[in-house]
Amino acid sequence: MNKIIYLDAAATMQKPDCVIGAEVDFLRNSYANAGRGICTRAVAVDDMVAATRRRVAEFINADANQVVFTSGATDGLNRVVNILTRQPWYAEMSTFAVSDIDHHSARLPWQELMYDGHIRKMFKCELDENFDINPNSVPKTDFLVITAMSNVLGRSQDVRAIIAAARRKNPDVVTIVDASQYVVHEKIDVKEWDCDFLVFSGHKIGADTGVGILYIRDSKKLFPDKFGGGMVLRVGGIESATKGSGGALFYENNPDLNLILNESPEMWEAGTLPLSQIAGLTPAIDYLEKHRPNLDLIKYAYDELEKIPKVKILTTRDAAILSFVVDGMHPLDVGALIGANDICVRAGNMCAAWIHTRMGIPGSIRISVGSQNTIDDINKTIDVINKIVK
Questions:
Q1: Is residue 41 located within the same domain as residue 183?
Q2: Cβ distance 177 to 193 under 8 Å?
Q3: Count of domains in the chain?
Q4: Distance (Å) of CA 330 to CA 308, 324, 362
Q5: Is the torsion defined by CA of 60, 65, 69, 70 positive or negative?
Q6: What dihedral angle (degrees, nearest 10) is formed by the CA atoms of 386, 129, 107, 324?
Q7: Where are the alpha helices (DSSP H) in 198-295?
Q8: Is residue 60 located within the same domain as residue 140?
Q9: Domain range for residue 348?
Q10: CB 135 within 8 A of CB 179
């Protein structure tokens, strides 16, 4: 297993020892449920969750009560749609905008709303010659989905400019940022970006699978999408109540069902949290900030692949990843042959079919690096690709 060259960090990053150690220590020595007990260990778990939340908030320049733990970016993106459709003002909203660099998780929940007749029209943001979102062409819309970095092209988008352009056309536009790839390579500042929602997955930054982050700017004003243990302060026996965060939900036909919700972020986290995964988030963030992937390796791979006949590189030299195709070969065949040489790369449509359709190809092969990769890994991979092409 240790002989395998892993060049698929964009799909999921290998876990540094500090993350593995933190999770093992939690499971062996500190495990208990959060928000459910008053014993010493349960209180310690609550403190760990709160400290992790503060660290994540610092990481993206948010307030701690705006940070919600999810099971991943896909969960977060679907929850955003569910949250928005529960708001009393949603009936007045009827259009959304996406782009062809979106991951399936960013766009499909909105398309499903349109298919079901719950939203009227979908717009697409125009892309320039580099397949970047052109801020000047962002349409006037009620909801705007922004992929901060394509998992196929690896180019950072100007999120701040895109949101500013959208707000000039509609000050009330609701903006949702998928930062799953961006978060690995660039600093996020949700306040500077002025976004309403943002998501990313823990496993992309070296934490575990099963945990993600959902940033909600107006976390105290919106009404939740999930109900259960931990998010309720009191149920029943309320003479008068109003609907709202930290207030109460009133059921007119049965006052016994009245309930008062906890404040944010607890009101967004019904049920048991992924605690062992949360325990690994702070060390993952600390490690990532000191050991960002070495993109000089991508530049080197780009220069070497350019020399190989029949290889067509799809990404720019300064991208965070390297995607390519081989003339006359299906991407899955190329990926399988590379994998047969104990090298892990990604091959297929990357759950981003629209950009591949835009480029007129069924899929691509992607090389992405983590902090553990070396130039020797790249050289061995180039040698294998050379043999495959020949």
A1: yes
A2: yes
A3: 3
A4: 17, 11, 8
A5: negative
A6: 0
A7: 275-279, 281-290
A8: yes
A9: 5-14+293-389
A10: no
Question: Do 119 and 91 lie in a common domain?
Answer: yes
Contact 263, 234 (CB under 8 A): no
Mean pLDDT (whole number) for 69-93: 93
Matching residue, tokens 């500077």: 192
Tokens describing residue 326: 């081989």
Q: Which stretches does DSSP call E strand in 222-319?
A: 232-235, 248-249, 259-261, 311-313
Which H helix or E strand runs over 199? strand 197-201
**What is the tens place of the pLDDT at every residue in 142-199?**
999 999 999 999 999 999 999 999 999 999 999 999 999 999 999 999 999 999 999 9
* d(C-alpha 337, C-alpha 383), whole Å: 12
Give the predicted TM-score (pTM) of the model: 0.94
Distance CA 154, CA 355 (A): 12
275 and 253, same structural domain?
Answer: no
Looking at the structure, do residues 186 and 208 belong to the same domain, yes or no?
yes
Kindly report, residue by residue over 303-352, the tens digit of the pLDDT: 999 999 999 999 999 999 999 999 999 999 999 999 999 999 999 999 99
Segment holding 70, helix H or strand E: strand 67-70
- For residue 241, pLDDT over 50 is answered with no
Sort 239 into a burial class: Cβ within 10 Å, 0-12 / 13-18 / 19+.
Answer: exposed
Q: Are 326 and 310 in contact (CB under 8 A)?
A: yes
Domain check: are 53 and 193 in the same one? yes
